[in-house]
Specification:
This protein is α/β, with parallel strands linked by helices. The protein has one domain: Rossmann fold. Helix content is 45%, strand content 16%. The protein is built from eleven helices and 13 strands. The strands form four sheets. Strands 3-2-1-4-5-6-11 form a seven-stranded parallel beta sheet, sandwiched between helices. The protein has a two-stranded parallel sheet with strand order 7-10. A two-stranded parallel sheet has the order 8-13. Helix 3 packs parallel to helix 5. The protein is globular. It starts with a strand and ends in a 5-residue tail after the last helix. Bound molecules: nicotinamide-adenine-dinucleotide. Nicotinamide-adenine-dinucleotide (NAD) binds next to helix 1, strand 2, helix 5 and strand 5.
C-alpha cells in the first residue's frame, strides 16, 4: 500500500495509475481544491479507478492532521508519494497565505504523520521554480536556491528545507523531486500548453507574455512518472536527496506556440503582454545526478508529447461527461 497525495490531480492521477498497473495498492488523499474545475479532477480519479481496483480515494485536506493520521492508521502504507499542493506561480502572488498553508503546513503534517505511522520512505514534489532566475545553466541540484521569486517557489523551497530537517531528525529516507514544467494528457488547465491548445483549437486569441524568448524545459508526464517511481524505489539508499526531473531540452515560448499551432492545425491569434511578475526567464535541468542515481532517461520528443496531449484533449472534450 502506498499513499499518494493529490491523487485527483494531473501528476497524482498518473502516478497512482502507474503504481496500480505495477500491482501496488493505492490510497489517495485529495481535497479537490477549487483551483480548477472539479469535473476535471473527477475525471482524473475515474481514470485511476479504471487503471486498477486496489484504489481508495479520501476527500480530505492534508492539513487536517486527524484525518491524515486516521487514514494512515487504518491503511498502513509502506511509503508516501506527496504530490498535493497549491500549484502555479502567478496565482500564488494573490494568495501567499493559502499557498503557505497547503504546501508548507500540509507537507509538515504529512512528514510527521508518515514517521508516526512507520513509513519506510517519503517522496515529494518540489519544483524547478526554486532555482529562481539562476544565471548558471543547466540548473544543477548543487546550485544555490536562496532566491525564489514567487510565493509558490518559496513554499517549495521551504518544503525542501523542512524535509531535510525532518530527515536529519528521523532518518526516514526522503526525496525532493524538482519537476520541470510537465505536460501531457490531463495537464492542469492553467498551464500554457493546455490553455494554448484549448484557445487555438477554439479560434480564440492567446496571451503570450514577454518577447517569446522565455524558455521552459518542458517534460512529458510519462517521463516524470518514471522518475517518481525510480525515486520511490531508490531513495532508501540515499537518505535525503534532491533530484531534478526535467528533459534537458529547453524550448522557447515562441517555438512552443509554433509547435502547438502545428499540432492543432491552426494559426494562433497572439496578444503580446509584458512578462509577468514571478515568472522566471528560463528553466533547464541538469540531469547528471538523476541519470546516474535513478537511471532517469526522459525519452518522449516534445512534438510527440504535444500530439498525445492534443489527442487526449479532443477525446476528453468529446466525451459526454466532460461537456
Ligand atoms: N505540473 C507541473 O508542471 C509541476 C511542475 C513543478 C512542480 N509540480 C508539483 O507537482 C505536484 C502536482 O502538480 P499538478 O500539476 O499535478 O497539480 P494539480 O493541481 O493538478 O494537483 C494537485 C492536487 O493536490 C490537491 N490539493 C491541493 N491542496 C490540497 C490540500 N490542502 N489537501 C489535499 N489535496 C490538496 C488538488 O486538489 C489537486 O488535485 C504539486 O506539488 C506541484 O507543485 C508540478
Amino acid at each position: 500500500m502506498i499513499l499518494v497525495t493529490g491523487a485527483a490531480g494531473f501528476l497524482g492521477s498518473h502516478v497512482a495509475g502507474a503504481l496500480l498497473g505495477r500491482g501496488h495498492s493505492i490510497v489517495g488523499i485529495d481535497n479537490f481544491d477549487p483551483f480548477y474545475d472539479r469535473r476535471l479532477k473527477d475525471a482524473n480519479a475515474a481514470a485511476v479507478r479504471a487503471a486498477g481496483a486496489e484504489f481508495e480515494l479520501l476527500e480530505a485536506d492534508i492539513c487536517d492532521e486527524g484525518a491524515v493520521r486516521s487514514l494512515l492508521q487504518r491503511t498502513r502504507p509502506e511509503g508516501v508519494i506527496h504530490l498535493a499542493a497549491k500549484a502555479g506561480v502567478r496565482p500564488s502572488i494573490a494568495d501567499p497565505a493559502g499557498y503557505a498553508r497547503a504546501n508548507v503546513l500540509g507537507t509538515s503534517v504529512l512528514l510527521e504523520a508518515a514517521r508516526w505511522a512507520g513509513c519506510s520512505r517519503f517522496v515529494m514534489a518540489s519544483s524547478s521554480s526554486v532555482y529562481g532566475n539562476n544565471r548558471r545553466t543547466p540548473f544543477s541540484e548543487d546550485h544555490a536556491v536562496e532566491h525564489p521569486i514567487s510565493p509558490y517557489a518559496a513554499t517549495k523551497r521551504a518544503c525542501e528545507l523542512i524535509a531535510f530537517t525532518h530527515w536529519s531528525l528521523t532518518k526516514m529516507p526522503t526525496a525532493c523531486l524538482r519537476f520541470f514544467t510537465v505536460f501531457g494528457p490531463r495537464q492542469r488547465p492553467d498551464l500554457a500548453i493546455s490553455a494554448f491548445m484549448r484557445r487555438i483549437g477554439a479560434g480564440e486569441p492567446i496571451d503570450v507574455f514577454g518577447d517569446g524568448s522565455m524558455a521552459r524545459d518542458f517534460t512529458y508526464v510519462d517521463d516524470i512518472v518514471a522518475g517518481v517511481l525510480a525515486a520511490y524505489e531508490r531513495v532508501a539508499a540515499h537518505g535525503y536527496r534532491v533530484w531534478n526531473l526535467g528533459s534537458d531540452r529547453p524550448v522557447r515560448l515562441d517555438e512552443m506556440v509554433a509547435a502547438v499551432e502545428r499540432t492543432v492545425g491552426r494559426d494562433a491569434v497572439v496578444n503580446r503582454k509584458p512578462m509577468q511578475p514571478g515568472d522566471v526567464e528560463r528553466t533547464w535541468a541538469d540531469l547528471t545526478r538523476s541519470r546516474a542515481e535513478l537511471g532517469y532517461s526522459p525519452s518522449t520528443p516534445f512534438e510527440e508529447g504535444l500530439r498525445r496531449q492534443w489527442r487526449w484533449y479532443q477525446e476528453a472534450t468529446a466525451a459526454p461527461s466532460r461537456t
